[in-house]
Amino acid sequence: MLRGIWQLRAGKLSVLFLSVIILLAIFGPALAPYDPLVGTDHVLADPSAQHWLGTDYLGRDVLSRILAGSTISVLGSVQVAVIALFVGAIPGILSVYLGRTFEWLTLRLVDTLIALPFLVFAVAVTALLGNGIPQAMLVVGVMVSPAFYRVARAAALTISRSQYVEAAILSGASIGWIVRKHVWAKILPAIAITLANTMGTGFVVVSSLTFLGIGVQPPAPTWGGVLASDLGYLNFRPYAPLFTTVLIVLTVLAFNLLADVIRDVSGESGRALLIRREKKRGRTARQTSATIPPTPHGDPQ
Amino acid sequence: MASIHTERETLAYGGASAGLSSRWAVARSTLALAFRSIIVFVTVFFLATLLTFALQGLSGLSPAHLQLSESATPEAIAALEHEWGLDLPLWQQYLNWFGGIVQGDLGRSWYNGADISLLLTSRAAISLSIAGLALLIGVTLGAVLGITAAKFQTTWIDRAITTFTTFVSVLPPFVVGIGLVAIFAVWFNWFPSAGYVPLDRGGLGPWLSHIWLPSLALSMEAVADIARQLRVGLIQASRENYVTGALVRGLSSERIFWGHVLRNGSGPALTMLGMKFPNLIGGAVVTEAVFGLAGYGRFAADSASRGDVPAVQGVLVLAIVLVVAFNLLVNLLLVRLSPASARGI
Q1: Residues of chain A with C-beta less than 8 angstroms from the C-beta of B345
Q2: What share of chain B has pLDDT > 90, as a percent?
Q3: Which Pfam family is one of this chain's hits (chain B) (predicted)?
């Protein structure tokens, strides 16, 4: 599967771009040429040789703030996706095997989580729980977990009805063994697609929250925070938000592209790819809880 | 328009001779479905309010944090909690709170003791103006783009629309908002970049010019989703056998499109609208911040950072009620449009 992603041009592009972004998230703070927290007298300066992206209203170097802020902005979305994976996929698989009460309860919980107006809840709950990064990640992670619940449940449903699982049960295999041996292997592509999509969604949500100043305390640099401070001084530097917005949009695009590429190559051959494309074309939004839902950001067709 | 459905139904129930009994069966199953969907919506509402109520316990906050300073004695705290009814058992607190909600009473703020329903009304007017206009833009523009793409499928028009919707769907609302402010407010200076004028204060013109840009920013995601779902739904519906049948019987292609294909192909887009409505209600938070509006998102964020739990709960309950009501409406519309869709609640 990994080789397949690399062979497609879109796959190569998104993987390369995301690698750069993730390297930025790890080493960005060390690369920052100036202290992102200390202001100077050069307030709202235009881009120059000293300050490649200019300075903000406190005279802080914008490039340094973007570099230093990449850690929270990018790694945050990875954390969100991992939390969502565990919170969503495990009950999703268990819902098929643990009886009707558990199934009904988790299905209704998922309905509820989907019905909740996402950002209002994320903002309110994070701020109520103490307004820190861990709280924000936890809240957002739980709120995007339904995507994983549905994917895992759909896969587990099809597998639980297949004959080789029946054979395994007849020969006395335990539920845990079947899940480890058969279910995980089958749902891995679906999980990978949802993971990439969720990172994209998580990235947007984390950027939105930091833009609102939720989850971080003011002087700490984030991409959303840089945008918010640019917005206040748009009359002086109208081009200022351009770089940050392009960075954010490209990152979201790369995550979505990656999800698409994984979907395309997760079949074994080119023929599978064609069939998948055909199926994709015939897909509709009318889905019950048992089928794979359109993700919050959809997938570009 | 209804002919195609009655034809299908009578076919399904074994010809015209079974007309009356089949109609009764349809009515009965519709009732059963309505009942089932109401159960689902009631459960969702109940669970959502339960989660909202649980926030108080999870946050560990109490009015004592807001109203008593550091000199608070245990007796003073206990007295205050008694005054707010926080010494009652949890289930009783929930019942009191829930009983209030049902009557439209959201309780009083811990911060200044004001009636939250009153505090919320003027804020919600701002947010709901934006969300409402965004919904209108989303449905209209989305429908126009989706129908155009489907009618001109595989031409450059279709490709251009698809590229546009794909691109727009990945843009976060605050990015769109900042772009709109930079272009239309700062550069062209056509619209104000911030602020709000109530409808009854300044009339239609100023009201619209203030909420136009935020609504546009908020609507983009809905536009993209509706256009894409509608395009796929319409193309799919136009490949159905009954379209060929209608063509053979000599109906004009325009009549087939507007009468049959549109009716049968718009279900997915409607469902998508119902699913995306929470985003519209929730996304208002970010749009408000971009355009400096004091709507309920700002109210929720401010109240939350003050630790004013009942005020936050009030905003969340309002949002939940809106989402549940809207989805109920969408479901009814779906059943009306195509009875078969009622099976897939």
Answers
A1: 288
A2: 3
A3: BPD_transp_1_N
In a domain, A297, yes or no: no
**Would you call B10 an interface residue with chain A, using a CB distance cutoff of 8 Å?**
no
Residue A301 domain flag: no
Nearest CB among B58, B171, B232 relative to A284 is that of B232
Establish if B178 touches chain A: CB-CB under 8 angstroms. Answer: yes
Residues B219, B305: Cα–Cα separation, whole Å: 28
Residue among B224, B278, B344 whose CB faces A115 most closely: B278
Is A207 close to B174, i.e. CB distance below 8 A? yes
> Would you give the distance in Å from CA B98 to the centre of its chain?
22
Query: Measured between CB atoms, which of B44, B162, B315 is closest to A115?
Result: B44
Cβ(B163)–Cβ(B150) below 8 Å: no
Interval B216-225: pLDDT, tens: 888 888 898 8
Task: Say how many domains are in chain A.
Answer: 1
Does A4 reside within a domain?
no
Length of chain A as a residue count = 301
Please give, rounded to a whole number of angstroms, the shortest distance from the CA of B44 to a CA of chain A. 5
Q: How many CB atoms lie within 10 A of CB A249?
A: 18
Interface contact A108-B43, CB threshold 8 A? yes
Query: b/e string for B222-232 if b means 16 or more Cβ within 10 A?
Result: bbbbbbbbbbb
ipTM of the complex: 0.75
- Reduced to 3 states (helix: H, G, I; strand: E, B; else coil), residue B268 is helix
What is the pLDDT confidence band of residue B339, given thresholds at 50, 70 and 90? low
Does A284 contact B236 at a Cβ distance shorter than 8 Å? yes
Instruction: Please name the residue that has the structure tokens 């690399």.
Output: A6
Strand partners, A151: none
CB pairs under 8 A between A and B: 184
Q: Nearest C-alpha of chain B: how many angstroms from A32?
A: 24
- Nearest-Cα distance to chain A for B133, in Å, is 18
Each residue's pLDDT tens digit, B76-116: 777 777 777 777 777 878 888 888 888 877 777 777 777 88
Partner-chain contact A284 B307, CB within 8 Å: no
* Band of residue A83 on the pLDDT scale cut at 50, 70, 90: very high
The correct CATH number of B26-344 out of 3.20.20.70, 3.50.30.10, 3.30.499.10, 1.10.3720.10 is: 1.10.3720.10
Asked if residue A227 belongs to a domain, the reply is: yes
Q: How far apart are CA B164 and CA B159, in angstroms?
A: 8
A211·B315 Cβ contact <8 A: no
Closest-CA residue to B66 (of B316, B317, B303, B314): B303
Instruction: Decide if A296 and B279 are in contact by the 8 Å CB cutoff.
Output: yes
Report the pLDDT value the prediction gives residue A270, as an integer from 0 to 100.
Answer: 41
Compute the distance between CA of residue A190 and CA of residue A212 in angstroms, rounded to an integer: 33
Question: Could you read off the pLDDT of B42-89 as tens digits, one per residue?
Answer: 888 888 888 888 887 777 777 766 666 666 677 777 777 777 777 777
Do residue A119 and residue B181 have CB atoms under 8 angstroms apart? Answer: no
- Structural domain boundaries enclosing A64: 9-283
**Interface contact B279-A117, CB threshold 8 A:** yes
CA torsion sign, A26 to A30 to A32 to A35?
Answer: positive
CATH assignment at residue A219: 1.10.3720.10
The residues near A156 (Cβ < 8 Å, ≥ 6 apart) are A92, A93, A95, A96, A97, A179, A183, A187
